[in-house]
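Hi R.,

As promised, here are both runs. First protein below:
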Amino acid sequence: MEKFRLADIEENNTIKNQIQRGFREQNPFGSEGFREENKIYLDLTYMFKTPGKNSIRIKDVELLIPDVIKAHQMLKNNEGNIFDGNIPMTGWQNLPLEITEEHIRDIKAVTSELSGKIDAFVSLGIGGSYLGIEATFRALTHGYFNQLSRKQRGDTPEIYFLGQNMDPDYFRDTLDMLEGKRIAINVISKSGTTTETAIAFRILRNLLEKSCFNNANQMILATTDKEKGILRKMSDEMGYKSFVIPDDIGGRFSVLTDVGLVGLAMANIDIEEFVAGFRNMREITLTDEFWQNPSLIHAALRYAAWRAGKKIEVIATNAKSLYSVARWMEQLFPESEGHEGHGMWVSPSFYSEKLHANGQMIQQGERNIIETFLMLCEHDNRIQIPREKVDSDGLNFLSDRGLDMGFINKNVVEGPAYAHFQGGIPNMTIKIPKRNAFNLGQIYYMMEKSVAISGYLLGHNPFIQPGVEAYKKAMFALIGKPGFEDQAQSMETNLKQIKRIKI
């Protein structure tokens, strides 16, 4: 049987970009022309005056402007309900300016040296110690990265993620992918006691020590607190190369810290360009001119929608590469806003796939939804649609007009945006020009500032997450962790009063 060939299909530009990064070729991110080509746009065409009840009016947003500006000024001055203990959790605001070229060189030196010694790199973390790294990696690399040759990956090891769940089958399957390879791991945890990550670290560390004998410690990186915690103590005692999680930056705001930069550097993502994107959006969002500041606009729109009874935000993208960014936002906003009965549930979606699933609900279900589109305007690749002699599927009009898959995919946003608006769903589109590290940095900073402003508007601290501790305590009690005996006894007493229903 003949082998499948990519006849008349152009070279994959995502692979080409990976190879170029492997040769340390950079985009001209310092130029004015590059910044102009990579402007992020907010399209609010379908946000106001939707048909039906509970529509949002532009007047509703304008009435919020004084409160939004006040919140912004307080944020910039580190004032208000922003503290965890006695630490203001706003170190992310000026971090783009504080990262030095020397620090970037140090990270790249460590990862470059280690990269040449390994076949696979495993990042261990959960929540903010995982989602931002994976989102950036997925956004900028081939969809089947680990199945490519090392050359096609840009002379980069395979990249894996563990420690973000407790599914033993998933963990075991990943071990199969690692068997027989030279591996290194980066364990990311401020305390070192986060259950999911700590268990993954214990298992992998044990396997490394049995495989590498006296060399295992050289294959372990630790990203943790500068001075305290179990992982810091272990790193110092075992001699792991370590990186620092700042005290004043929470996990879901940490992708620009060593939490994100180390793993991204290992994957040959241009972390200098990444930092430049953060810096650019920081500069853009410094202004108190409301209609010139996308973070303030975004925060006000979502708050106005919440006040109008919108309880769910569908964050939809037309790019598989950006779906993980929507998942990053799924943590950033609910974990920051879900206090005291406040906030919207965030539902990440990949269109047009999900349009054949929950699309019916969005179009005609309960009108408690808003929609935010992450629209990739220019994909890495163009796929032409061939013309056929017999136009049985009726698609020759596309090839006759020279229209490719990218054109259709753009309308996977434009079409639903219009249809859903007509169905009573207010929606906005965030237009992202291209797949590059600069634009990822811009999006992250824009969203971090937006959710910070949201905290002021909602009247609670967006930088803490006390509700997350409830599941941890219950789980620790159930698994018999020492120190949780009272919790276990209390749960046992309460459970006796609850009738277990099994059918």
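And here is the second one, sequence first, then its structure tokens:
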Amino acid sequence: MSKLIYDKAELLSTIDRIVKRTEMMDLSWDWPCGVAYYGISKAYEATKNEEYLNFLKERIDELISLGLPTWTINTCAMGHSLITLYQATNDKKYYEILLSKIDFLKHKALRFGSGTLQHTVSSKNDFPEQAWADTLFMAAFFMLRFGVISEDKELINDALNQYVAHIKYLQDKQTGLWYHGYNNIQKDHMSSFYWARANAWASYTMSQVNLTLPEAYFYPQYMDVWGSLDEMLCSLKFYQTENGLFRTILDDETSYEELSASAGIAASFLENKNPLHLKYVNKAYKGILPYIDESGKVNGVSAGTAVMKDSTGYKQISRVWIQGWGQGLVLAFFSALLTSNL
């Protein structure tokens, strides 16, 4: 009978090393910090280690004192750790910042078509009428979480509609895999590659909908989320390498194995709670561990990546330096292992 295979003491020690190394990073109000601190939040929830929560509070309070940035899709990623802080402390200042992010997403964020959020990385119109898979983590999943805790059904439906729109624009219905981006002006997927981290953003956030939203089955949009995720995971399993990882271009054997995507996809298999997927989770865990050094740095993580013009562009992205999203997605995966009931 299949079961999760890991040494709990080793896993706890590894999580602690990753958290401690992440705490050393000089991260601020952008998406690298948002994903990294989401990982620390998940580690806190899984281990109940108050040191992790205390760090988040001290560092985020410091960032607040330095001033809030202009909100974009990417800077909304910090909403995840603010939710954790608000729920743990009941401090209204976190709630007020959350409300300001939600106000931006509801009323000021650029949209196209029938209300799809355009991916934004600055206050400029960087990528006109483009949908990126990244938006699901930075904005839609955050909107869903806040909609649930604030009992805002309009916001919940807006979040679910973002999932449905991104499924429409980004999922290849033939393969089940996701493209990195969609250009609504040109009506195409630009370079049309199955970038692994895009597939991690999509699969991970979709795996969280049923875990986040009570009675998700009463929302018609959830049927699309469930169907999309099911087809996606059924396809992704065939692209896992012998090392338990996933390549930065999923279907290109000349592209390198990439750790943030591997962790995000593995977490998706685990959080979807299908026992047939446990063998892929175990294989991924075994493959990821050697990339975490003694300091807690997750190695093999690709740098920030726009929708590149060709496969060479994706394959030449550096994977030398520590990245907040690598730390955060590995923490999310390892924390899910600790709390899984499979």
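A quick note on the second one: Residues 301 and 319 are 5 Å apart (CA to CA). Let me know what you think.

Best,
J.
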